[in-house]
Predict the 3D structure of the following.
Amino acid sequence: RLNPNILLQRQDRDTLRRVFRAWGLDILQQDALINYLIDWVDPDNAVQNPGAEQRAYGRKDMPFNRPFRSIEEMSLVKGMRDVEQLYPNWRDWFSVYASGVLDVNEAAPEVLSAVTGADVMLCERLRARRLGKDGIPNTKDDAPLPDLQTALNLLGVTSSSLQDLSGILSVTSSTRRIVCTAQSGDTTRELGVVIQGAPGQGGGGEMLWLGEK
């Protein structure tokens, strides 16, 4: 998934515009929402043009003027109510625990299509290829893409885009979400953990989140 805090810190307007366009926002809505998000996370009260600081919310405690601590906080930003109506599944595109690069071996086809500009059908074929014949992730027949150039070739993206996309795309991710599910009769419990770093890379990784439902 994409990390909104990193995209906003970089002020990566190109990537954000592509994402918002995929959700159905027009160019004016895209640029306004980017500004509203920047105003929410930056530490000052200077207003983007257009923008939204304290006066726009009519509350002393908003915006928070700090990075998002959860994706749900994004729903409080001006303009996100319109997004909710246009594309209710927008939360599935983001994670505040993401490393800052999108793993093409893990990304959902619609997210990969928006970020790269590739046709969504090609992105779906790419996903089918990497999942192998059984279509199930993390099994023996998985065929992960070895490098970014191979991935872009399969997506029909020109090699000239490699440098632009290398800062936001990768074939590996340092962030992993692990879910353990236990079921007894009609009762199901899930324990999830988000870890940054991989086993064998210096200590096995840092736990970022632990939750149960």
